[in-house]
């Protein structure tokens, strides 16, 4: 069978990291099944995220990485999508093209599954923002303290002039 159906509880494709941290720079896919998996990786915006080698046929027991690069600093709310289906033995050959396989799958309206991988801001970015936030709060506290001191001084001056 060229495109065997995907079992309802199919969990033999593992994707990591999940959620995706932009410090990782690549998405790893591992096929734990006995059947090859045709996959493609897409994103919410090609202007913000670049995916190289986005489609392939992952043979049984194999693992691959897909390089992912942010194009802009703000990828807040973006996600990666791994769309996949199972493929028969005729597609296990290393010379087979994933793009041709996808064309055939589309023509035959083959059922696919999709994993959504949220993109989180890199931990370094979050740490830096956390530090900036702490510094801003400290600055606010200092400003409040200065205002209080000025208010106290004005109150003292007013009290002295009444005497």
CATH domain class of the domain at 13-118: Mainly Beta
Output the CATH homologous superfamily of the domain at 13-118.
Immunoglobulins
How many strand units?
A: 9
Span between N and C termini? 101 Å
The CATH topology name of the domain at 13-118 reads Immunoglobulin-like
Q: Give the structural class.
A: alpha+beta
From the 3D coordinates, which CATH architecture of the domain at 13-118 would you assign? Answer: Sandwich
Set down the secondary structure blueprint.
Elements: E1 13-16, E2 20-21, E3 26-31, E4 36-43, E5 49-51, E6 55-58, E7 63-70, E8 79-87, H1 98-107, E9 113-120, H2 123-162
Parallel strand pairs: 2-9
Antiparallel strand pairs: 1-3, 3-7, 4-6, 4-8, 5-7, 8-9
Give a verbal description of the structure.
By secondary structure, the chain is of the alpha+beta class. Helix content is 31%, strand content 32%. It has a domain at 13-118: Immunoglobulins (Immunoglobulin-like), CATH 2.60.40.10. The chain has 2 helices and 9 strands, in the order ββββββββαβα. The strands form 2 sheets. A 5-stranded mixed sheet has the order 2-9-8-4-6, covered by helices on one side. A 4-stranded antiparallel sheet has the order 1-3-7-5, with no helix packed on it. The longest helix is centred in the C-terminal third of the chain and has 40 residues, at 123-162. The radius of gyration is 27 Å and the shape is elongated. The termini are far apart. The model has no long low-confidence stretch (mean pLDDT 83). Residues 121-163 are annotated as: Disordered. InterPro entries: Ig-like_fold (IPR013783), MSP_dom (IPR000535), PapD-like_sf (IPR008962). This is Major sperm protein. It comes from Caenorhabditis remanei.
